[in-house]
Design brief:
417 residues, globular, alpha/beta, 40% helix, 16 strands, seven-stranded mixed sheet, 12 helices
Length: 417
């Protein structure tokens, strides 16, 4: 190796050694000197702060697919008419010809007027199994009748509730064409719908129709009906003239007679006349308290109607504020005023399990027992004599509220508890 080559090699070695030393010193310095200052942010990464913007509204709810009510075959023209001649009171006979070869109709179709409110939904959960399990003859059909959705902010919630009702109970859910209401025509809509369900084509005769039901009725979802007793009672009535059945009330305005709204039932022929023959007048007069309005329709027909009022059979709970409150006995067909779980429990227990053969006197004893009042037999005799006086005055086991309070006071005074 020449002298020049040795000098170049020595210079390269010195440079390499110096580079290694400088790198080691740099690493050591970085380990001993912690960073004490925050580096300046990169200005190109800073997000500009904008004024707060409200969140965009949610997308519109998906339309709930409510199904239209099923179509039933029914006559397009009215089958009911009035006789030409009238009796001494100006009443006509109702003509409703049907073929003698028609199949035997069922006893009744009853519409339970209800809404989608949670309390009403709870009542339907009790009524459905009660009516299906206790309907031994299967001659009375119950359907639950809703108005359509209202045009307000709860529209879609109501639609969803109705859709679920249709989905879960397709065979007994009826949704009427007009928005939900109580006294703005819902009862007329129900009877018009019921009329369309009330017929079947004659099995052999062309263009002839046969009734599916003898009666069509309306009740509420806070009324409990003893199905077999109702069936037996309806079958016991005469059928020569149309029947209008319930508990009659007479009062203002104009002291009009009508059946109270907890449960009233009309012969199919009478419903046919109201909803078809007299439809124009009835439709114009469909607004108002539903039970009173129905009474007006019946009175307007001008036909002879057999009014069957029986407060012993159709009444309220005994603690109802209305005059048709009564004790539940073996005669009771329906109990109204079941506004809460306690009253529903009481109605089911007394109507279906404890009232068979129970007399009014025994019902009073039962009432005292539920209150915890115990009387000697001699004291009972005095109380029951007063009960008998009230029963005679009211023509049945119905007890007016002032009379119930008098009985309660006697029971409490004489109680040995």
């Amino acid at each position: 190796m020449s002298r020049v080559d040795r000098l170049v090699y020595a210079a390269l070695l010195l440079a390499a050694t110096l580079l290694v030393f400088l790198n080691s010193a740099s690493v050591a310095s970085n380990q001993k000197q912690p960073i004490t200052t925050v580096p300046e942010p990169h200005h190109d990464l800073v997000v500009e702060q904008k004024p707060h913007q409200p969140s965009p509204p949610p997308p519109p709810a998906k339309e709930v697919p409510l199904k239209p009510s099923p179509k039933f075959q029914s006559p397009s023209n009215s089958l009911a008419s009035r006789s030409t001649a009238a009796d001494n009171h100006g009443k006509h006979s109702l003509l409703f010809p049907t073929s003698s070869s028609c199949p035997k109709p069922k006893t009744a179709l009853i519409g339970v007027i209800t809404v989608t409110d949670p309390n009403n939904s709870m009542r339907r959960q009790y009524l459905r199994p009660t009516y299906s399990q206790s309907n031994s003859s299967s001659e009375i059909d119950f359907v639950f009748v809703f108005g359509g959705p209202k045009n307000n902010q709860d529209n879609n919630i109501q639609k969803e509730s109705l859709y679920l009702e249709q989905l879960l109970y397709p065979n007994d859910t009826v949704i009427l064409p007009n928005p939900e209401n109580m006294n703005d025509g819902k009862t007329f809509d129900w009877f018009a719908e019921a009329r369309n369900r009330a017929y079947t084509p004659h099995p052999t005769e062309k263009d002839a129709w046969c009734p599916r039901y003898k009666y069509i009725g309306k009740t509420d979802d806070d009324t409990l009906v003893h199905v077999d007793r109702l069936n037996a009672f309806l079958k016991s009535l005469q059928e020569k003239d149309p029947n209008y059945i319930g508990t009659m009330y007479t009062g203002p305005p104009n002291w009009l007679h009508y059946m109270t709204g907890s449960l009233y039932i009309l012969s199919t022929s009478l419903v046919e006349y109201i909803t078809m023959t007299d439809r124009e007048w009835v439709f114009e007069n469909r607004i108002g308290h539903e039970d009173l309005t129905t009474g007006r329709w019946v009175n307007h027909t001008g036909v002879y109607v057999n009014w069957v009022s029986d407060r012993a059979k159709f009444h309220d709970q005994v603690d109802s504020p209305f005059y048709y409150s009564a004790f539940t006995t073996g005669e009771t067909v329906s109990v109204h005023w079941n506004k809460d779980i306690h009253h529903f429990y009481t109605a089911v227990r007394e109507l279906y399990f404890e009232s068979e053969g129970v007399t009014a006197r025994e019902a009073v004893r039962h009432y005292a027992k539920t209150k915890g009042w115990v009387l000697t037999e001699s004291d009972w005799e005095g109380v029951l004599k007063q009960v008998d006086t009230f029963l005679v005055a009211n023509g049945g086991p119905g007890i007016a509220q002032n009379e119930l309070r008098a009985i309660e006071q006697l029971l409490q005074e004489k109680s040995i508890n």
